């Protein structure tokens, strides 16, 4: 069974550049989550989708961040322009159900470094 | 707002012993509480889910308890092995059953 697939695994870029992170959820899962993880703040939910529709984006830090889910098998998280404080590990997760009373399945993340 | 507290200090134990990790919350009692394992460079992996009306849940060497009076969940690994070394995260629902709130995790090291 293929799990959640994220790309790239690592991204190093200079501040001001556009960054696009990609995620393929587990087939059949109807919820998709984007998280950011740092040592200081832990896992923070940025946005989640249900059936490709964004439900809650209250965790998105600011307008520089945007996320889309054009179909059930693909989602992107975009940062434009990027800043050094965006450096973190970004995870995508999917679940069958809300992910509160069901397990969430995570990808292995994208480690983002903004210089 | 809800706060989750997990031991920030790493837990070091000897192989074969029982590891006990703590997850405390400060506000409302969640309807659901989940435990995950995270290895370096990997995403969290789901281990167990416990509901507010359940006192205890077991899966092989793992046991989770949920005490709504103490506002605490305990996570036990019996007969621990070096392969159990990882960071363990607890997460609970936000009170509206819409999303999870996560603790910072506790690092466990099992020494051979």
Give structural attributes.
heterodimer, A: about 120 residues, mainly beta, seven-stranded mixed sheet, four-stranded antiparallel sheet, 11 strands, B: about 110 residues, six-stranded mixed sheet, globular
Number of strands of chain B: 11
Helix content of chain A: under 10%
The percent range for helix content of chain B is under 10%
Order of helices and strands of chain A: EEEEEEEEEEE
Helix/strand/pairing class of chain B, anyone? mainly beta
Shape descriptor of chain A:
globular
Q: Flag low-confidence runs of chain A.
A: none
Counted beta strands of chain A: 11
Classify the secondary structure makeup of chain A into a structural class.
mainly beta
Quick one: biggest sheet of chain B?
Answer: 6 strands, mixed
> Distance between termini of chain A?
36 Å
What percentage of the residues of chain A does DSSP assign to strands (E)?
over 45%
Q: SSE order of chain B in H/E notation?
A: EEEEEEEEEEE
What does this molecule look like?
- With 115 residues, chain A is mainly β.
- Chain A has no helices and eleven strands.
- Chain A has strands spanning 5-7, 10-13, 19-24, 31-38, 42-50, 53-56, 65-71, 74-79, 88-95, 105-106, 110-114.
- In chain A, the strands form two sheets. In chain A, strands 2, 4, 5, 6, 9, 10 and 11 form a seven-stranded mixed beta sheet that branches. In chain A, strands 1-3-8-7 form a four-stranded antiparallel beta sheet, with no helix packed on it.
- The radius of gyration of chain A is 13 Å and the shape is globular.
- Chain A starts with a strand and ends with a strand.
- Chain B is an all-beta fold.
- Chain B contains no helices and eleven strands.
- Chain B has strands spanning 4-6, 11-14, 19-25, 32-38, 45-51, 56-59, 62-67, 72-77, 86-93, 100-102, 106-111.
- In chain B, strands 2, 4, 5, 9, 10 and 11 form a six-stranded mixed beta sheet that branches. A five-stranded antiparallel beta sheet of chain B has the order 1-3-8-7-6, with no helix packed on it.
- In chain B, a hairpin with a 2-residue loop joins β6 and β7.
- The radius of gyration of chain B is 13 Å and the shape is globular.
- At the A-B interface, β5 and β10 of A face β5 and β9 of B.
């Amino acid at each position: 069974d293929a799990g959640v697939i994220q790309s790239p695994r690592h991204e190093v870029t200079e501040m001001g550049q556009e960054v696009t992170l990609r995620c393929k959820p587990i087939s059949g899962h109807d919820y998709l989550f984007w998280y950011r993880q740092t040592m200081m703040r832990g896992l923070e939910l940025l946005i989640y989708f249900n059936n490709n529709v964004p439900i809650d984006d209250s965790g998105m830090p600011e307008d520089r961040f945007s996320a889309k889910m054009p179909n059930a098998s693909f989602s992107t998280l975009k940062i434009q322009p990027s800043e050094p404080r965006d450096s973190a590990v970004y995870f995508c997760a999917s679940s069958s159900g809300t992910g509160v009373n069901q397990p969430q399945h995570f990808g292995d993340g994208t480690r983002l470094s903004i210089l | 707002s809800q706060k989750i507290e997990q031991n920030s200090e790493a837990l070091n134990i000897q192989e074969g012993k029982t590891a006990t990790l703590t997850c405390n919350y400060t506000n409302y009692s969640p309807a659901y509480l989940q435990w995950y394992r995270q290895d370096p460079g990997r995403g969290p992996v789901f281990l167990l889910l416990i509901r507010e009306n359940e006192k205890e849940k077991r899966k092989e060497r793992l046991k989770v308890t949920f005490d709504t009076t103490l506002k605490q969940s305990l996570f036990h690994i019996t007969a621990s092995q070096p392969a159990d070394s990882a960071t363990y995260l607890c997460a609970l629902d936000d009170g509206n059953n819409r999303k999870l709130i996560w603790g910072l995790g506790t690092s466990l090291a099992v020494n051979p």
